[in-house]
Amino acid sequence: MAGDLRDLIRAKAAESVRITTTSKGLSGFVGKINTFYKKEVITSGALSVERFSSGSIELDIVLGGGWPRRRIALLYGKESSGKTFTALQACKTLNDLGESCLIVDPEGTYDPKWAEEVIGLQRDKNLYVQPEYGEQVVDIVTSGIREGIFGLIVVDSLAATVPSVELEKSSEEQQMGVQARLLNKAFRKWQSAMIAMQGKAPTLILINQEREKIGVMYGDPTTLPGGKSQHFYSSIKVKFKAGKVHDEPGKTEGAYVELAGVVTKNKTFRPHLEFSLLMFLKEMDGHKLGEIDNFDTLIKYCRELGLLSVVKGICTLKVDGEEKVFPSKDAVISELRRQPELRKKVTNFVITKRVALL
After folding, report:
1. Chain centre to alpha carbon of residue 132
2. Interhelix angle 329-338/294-304, nearest 10 degrees
3. DSSP 8-state symbol, 160
4. Whole-number Å distance between alpha carbons of 239 and 157
5. Residue 141: how many CB atoms within 10 A of its CB?
């Protein structure tokens, strides 16, 4: 047995020597590695980061243009701070592009009807699964990555991913670190599967909850269940603050909620940028329930970038060298609502320019 193991080690060492034999130039090395593994393992030159919109102009800007494709993003923060809403907005964006999403819900709180009616998700472009235990979550997500048919996979949440041993054993028995070990293994499997799929890999948006450490008197007492791997494997981490509910003027019922946060980690753009956005809780001022107030944001940045000028209440919008005159800001918003292509053109211009200025 020991002799067989030594022979195997020698064979592997010889194989490694064959691979790493010096070639003339970078192209020779790339060709040798790719030929040996029979697939494109190494590419020369920089790889561009593809992105898709988060549904919010403010969030798109601080992310560097939107969510990066084929990366892992971790959303965490206070309860009712907009984590699930933000993830479902990303699903809606991809649905509008004709792509499918997989929503994994270990919490058991997802409401497909609400997501369709309020957020605008398309039923025929999304799959929803409610796993019984954590190992199912890991295997389902791994299979979803390897299928190559999803643009986005959402897991809500990691904290609710319960290992099967906790279900099988008595609640009196203590299983130390089993969830952390399970999720650490999950991240290794998911990242390897995403690398293997290359251009067909989905984006992963993982949601987690905050917990508090015991006995911490100085510094940040909050922590995230599920082990350390989530911090290292995530290309993007977004921390959400508690949402602030605002009432409609003259009324006491909540009209919209202000969601805010900070991108604490970003390997694709500048990190530590803050954002805030408004989500409407009822229909008002032309906005629908569940809609993000992107129009006022668009007007603000258009004025900052010189795309929109206001003189004595008269608004002039410059697009592709042409000037369009409107009697008020509301008239500009109405025109942007009426013409989706114009809104898309102005939005792309604003995001590109603002990202370049950061």
Report:
1. 24
2. 120
3. T
4. 14
5. 25
In angstroms, rounded to a whole number, what is the distance separating the alpha carbons of residues 318 and 316?
7
Report how far residue 197's alpha carbon sits from residue 191's, in angstroms, rounded to the nearest whole number.
10
Looking only at the bridges linking them, the beta strands covering 314-319 and 308-311 are antiparallel
Q: What are phi and psi of 276, to 5 degrees?
A: -150, 145
> pLDDT tens-digit profile of 307-316?
999 998 899 9
pLDDT, tens only, 222-238: 999 999 999 999 999 99
Is 53 in a helix, a strand, or coil?
coil
3-state secondary structure of 322: strand
Q: What is the C-alpha to C-alpha distance for residues 116 and 121, in angstroms, rounded to an integer?
A: 4
Peptide bond before residue 157 is cis, with ω within 30 degrees of 0: yes
The three-class DSSP label of residue 124 is: helix
Q: How far is CA 29 from CA 12, 17, 19, 39, in A?
A: 19, 13, 9, 14
In whole angstroms, what is the distance from residue 166 CA to residue 153 CA?
25
> Measuring CA to CA, which residue among 66, 135, 132, 52 is closest to residue 94?
52
- Yes or no: say if 187 and 233 are a contact pair by the CB < 8 Å rule: yes
For residues 67 and 198, the answer to whether their CB atoms sit within 8 Å is no
Residue 91, CA atoms < 13 Å, CB-side half-sphere: 30
> Which carries the bigger pLDDT value, residue 36 or residue 132?
132
Whole-angstrom distance, CA of residue 358 vs CA of residue 343: 23
Q: What are phi and psi of 339, to 5 degrees?
A: -120, 95
Q: Is the dihedral of CA 346, 347, 352, 357 positive or negative?
A: positive
Note the pLDDT of residue 254.
82
Is residue 319 predicted with pLDDT exceeding 60? Answer: yes
Helices (H), the chain: 2-20, 25-37, 57-63, 83-96, 112-114, 134-147, 164-168, 178-197, 229-233, 294-304, 329-338, 340-357
Handedness of CA 90, 259, 114, 224 (dihedral sign): positive
Is a pLDDT exceeding 80 seen at residue 62?
yes
